[in-house]
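Feature request, filed as a ticket because there's no other form

It would be nice if the structure record came with a short human-readable summary line next to the tokens. Right now we just get the raw output. Example of a typical job, pasted below so the devs can see what we mean:
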Amino acid sequence: MIIRLNILSLVFVAALPGAVYSAGDPAPPETLAISAYEQGREQARSENWDRAAALFQSVVEKDGQDYRALNMLGYSLRQIGRLADSLAAYDRALSIKPDYAPALEYRGVTLLKSGNRRAALADYRALVRLGSPLAADLKEALDRAAKN
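Raw output as currently delivered:
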């Protein structure tokens, strides 16, 4: 009887942490936490550009070599009109990974918005050399800009 009671007590105590969490604990275990990068992507998908930029900036502050976060930081900054800061983020991403096609395309678009068609064309040519399908997107932006 005492052994049975001890076993039941152990089962109850072992199940308690799961019951507490499932009851609505606001702080999920670390393994379920969403990274700041993924949170930033969610904010970008929702067009919450300021929040996205802040999240990507926090990733870059922790890891200055995260070229993907730098790229998305640049994209978010471009969306809120901070073109010079956006270009600086793309340049930093490309200094880490020169063949990162998304940064080349996004920088090219930002360069066009900044009035630097020649530099945007250089990014287009780099995308073509890489064989990136993103070259077509930048070419389309270059063509649209030429018509305006």
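Something like this underneath would help us a lot:
The domain at 35-147 is CATH 1.25.40.10 (Serine Threonine Protein Phosphatase 5, Tetratricopeptide repeat).
The chain has one domain: 35-147.
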